[in-house]
């Protein structure tokens, strides 16, 4: 079989798996819809309950500071659904059945990745529309806005492979539940909600180097929203880091996911 034929076969199998995952969401839309609207609840909580007590670096409206950060946070929240879906399929034996079928070995993980990306596009669109309805001011122009969306989806694409890998190596859904607890510290230890300069020095340094902070800061600049400046190298090069961090995660976890899937049951 030629390389082109093999690629076409893998692509067709991946799309079949994608349609399978999407059909599950159509039959059971509750968790998917909840995943879209949970970040909105977070915006209302932090923007409405705590926003008046939080100062924005350099002045400006806290809501305009918060919304771009929540876009990045939404990309992180999707990690949990990816991990749970992969682990559930493995625990039910679905993954083993796929591996026994005459299909491309990469189709299962690629199909899951495509489905989760489609889900994330819808979730991000819901967040953007919600922000605009609540009074978020987005500047910077159309090109900057498209670049910001691209950086957000790049982060989500990278986190999909982190989620797939963790889901494949986890022993069961209960292990994933334990891992999910770590998502919150990663999210809060960033510049999403506050300026890292307000944290103790060592903690602020960790927050500045958080991949979530790089994307949040880059998106704020592209949307011409208030943000924290920062004197460190990583703060001054947030847009560059918003590209490098996801590429590094992809380079590490995509091959790990593919290799782990091939070795399942071996």
From TrEMBL:
InterPro entries per UniProt: ABC2_TM, ABC2_TM_bact-type, ABC_2_transport, Nod_factor_ABC_transporter
Do you know which PROSITE patterns this protein is assigned to? ABC_TM2
Q: Does the keyword Membrane apply?
A: yes
Its transmembrane ranges are 32-53, 65-86, 107-136, 142-168, 233-256
Locations listed in the record: Cell membrane; Membrane
Q: Where is the ABC transmembrane type-2 domain?
A: 30-264
Q: Tell me where on the tree of life, at the top rank, the source sits.
A: Bacteria
Hydrolase among keywords: no
| Recorded family membership | Belongs to the ABC-2 integral membrane protein family.
Q: What is this protein called?
A: Transport permease protein
